[in-house]
Design brief:
With 483 residues, the protein is α/β, with parallel strands linked by helices. It has two domains: 224 residues, glycerate kinase, domain 1 (3-Layer(aba) Sandwich); 244 residues, Rossmann fold. 38% of the residues lie in helices and 20% in strands. It contains 20 helices and 15 strands. The strands form three sheets. The protein has a six-stranded parallel beta sheet with strand order 6-5-4-7-8-9, with helices on both faces. The radius of gyration is 23 Å and the shape is globular.
Length: 483
């Protein structure tokens, strides 16, 4: 993928505006290495489109007469008292909308909680808005309403649930004896701790009246069909739709997480007392009715679609995987070092390769004391680390890193793009990329560079999507690793 090849790629990819759901493609292509940038933007956009929950429902859920087929399972609606839809999360509204199209008047009612600004209107299922990534009073009200709706379910009902990533903040229900303020503070501390999502959820499930299977326990032997999206490494169902499946973690593990990340003293006496009480233990769901879970989309499936798109564009796809975890800026540095070495020396990846991955949940560890961090998110910090690594020499590399839900770290940016010229451009603008990463102020730096990726809410959530294009370094680099 030489410089001339890059220019050919840029023409062959079509108009800059033709990369939905990315809405600011023209801005992202008016600087840096536009040919390589367009390749990575095209491929990551194809990944977001491939992650459509509504399309997955169309493929995997079918009504034949009175029988509902879902992922190889059968449900006789003629034998059911009624059909109810409940859910919360970033992809839940899309799932509920697709179910409305399939089942129509067979749905007796329901409630779905979505992120503020992403609401829609459904004929049979009520849609309410709440907040993410930190729960608000609207999240508290939504959590209480879901518990009320679950309490109204009776034996013989089919409850189709759509709990997806983001539900922990969108629907919040503190257990008895715990204030909302303590619960909200716990969420904030966990999000800033740098803990992987599995460990974060191990705590949240034991400090809730909703999570850890507690919502399923409210449903009085109803039949549950859980439709969800895999947004965590490993595909463990109690990390994806934990209000309505059996919890596999325990209280001792939750306490260990808080101590491991130095949060035990900060969470306070209310949390200590709760975790020492029987209410912290998750219910055993044996005898609470049949529970079936169908995973509609996984990160691995989306990565396969991205690889197919890379191949269609004439690149050699290399699938890095779908279970990455770790501190975002360090992951960015590692990916950048590999890409730069490949561009300059032709290994470990050949020029012309396009690397694709679904990051499980990269993390950002924020200081609990001192100056507050600026806005940003894991993918933006990852882009900063990547930009610094590929700027050391005359490589030809570009990468894009986005949260598939369209909001990285609670900002309106899905993530960011960077190429081999980003560090040089930053220096010309008087920007210190290292300081931006250390001070956790990634959004401002990337906004100034014009490198934030904007999609708006995408209606899906399959973790983070990363794409890296490797071109051959120009001849003057001489394989020496720098000017």
């Amino acid at each position: 993928m030489t410089a001339s090849h890059v220019r050919t790629d840029e023409r062959s990819l079509g108009p800059a505006s033709d990369l939905p759901p990315i809405g600011n493609t023209r801005q992202l292509l008016d600087h840096g290495l536009p040919g390589l940038r367009k390749l990575v933007l095209d491929v990551v956009a194809s990944g977001i489109r491939a992650a459509s929950p509504a399309a997955a429902v169309d493929r995997l859920v079918e009504l034949r007469g009175n029988v509902l087929h879902a992922g190889g399972h059968r449900f006789d609606l003629g034998a059911m008292r009624s059909v109810v839809v409940l859910g919360a999360g970033k992809a839940s509204l899309s799932i509920a909308g697709a179910l409305e199209a399939k089942l129509g008047d067979r749905i007796a009612g329901g409630l779905v909680v979505c992120r503020r600004g992403a609401a829609g209107v459904l004929p049979h299922v009520e849609v309410v808005e709440a907040d993410h990534p930190v729960p608000s009073r609207a999240s508290l009200a939504a959590g209480r309403r879901l518990i009320e709706a679950a309490g109204a379910v009776r034996p013989g009902d089919l409850v189709i649930t759509a709990f997806t990533g983001g539900s922990s903040a969108l629907a919040c229900a503190p257990p008895d004896g715990l204030s909302f303020e303590s619960k909200q503070r716990l969420h904030s501390l966990l999000l800033a701790s740098g803990a992987p999502i599995a460990e974060v959820n191990a705590v949240r499930k034991h400090v809730s009246a909703l999570k850890g299977g507690r919502l399923a326990a409210q449903m009085q032997s109803a039949t549950l069909l859980n439709l969800t999206v895999a947004d965590v490494p490993g595909g463990f169902v109690d990390l994806m739709c934990d209000p309505v499946v059996q919890d596999t973690s325990d209280v001792a593990g939750a306490i260990a997480v808080l101590k491991q990340y130095g949060l035990w003293k900060d969470v306070g006496p209310e949390i200590w007392r709760h975790l020492d009480s029987p209410l912290a233990r998750s219910p055993i769901l044996d005898g609470h009715g049949a529970i079936t879970t169908v995973v509609l989309i996984s990160g691995a499936e989306v990565v396969a679609e991205m690889a197919a798109r890379a191949r269609a564009l004439g690149c050699e796809p290399v699938v890095l995987g779908s279970t990455f975890e770790g501190e975002a800026v360090h992951l960015g540095g590692l990916l950048g070092a590999l890409a730069q070495e490949s561009s300059l020396r032709g290994a470990p990846f050949r020029p012309g390769s396009l690397l694709v991955a679904a990051g499980g949940e990269s993390t950002v560890t924020l200081p609990r004391h001192g100056a507050p961090a600026g806005p940003g998110g894991p993918n933006q910090e990852l882009a900063l680390g990547f930009a610094r690594a590929i700027g050391r020499g005359r490589a030809e590399v570009a990468g894009v890193f986005v949260d598939s839900d369209g909001s990285d770290g609670g900002t309106e940016a899905a993530g960011a793009c960077a190429d081999s010229l980003s560090a040089e451009r930053a220096a010309e603008c008087g920007l210190d990329l290292r300081a931006a990463a250390v001070e956790h102020d990634s959004y401002a730096a990337l906004q100034r560079l014009g490198d934030l990726v904007i999609t708006g809410p995408t209606g899906t959530n399959v973790a983070d999507l990363w794409t890296i294009a490797i071109g051959a370094a120009p001849p003057q680099a001489g394989g020496a690793g720098g000017p």
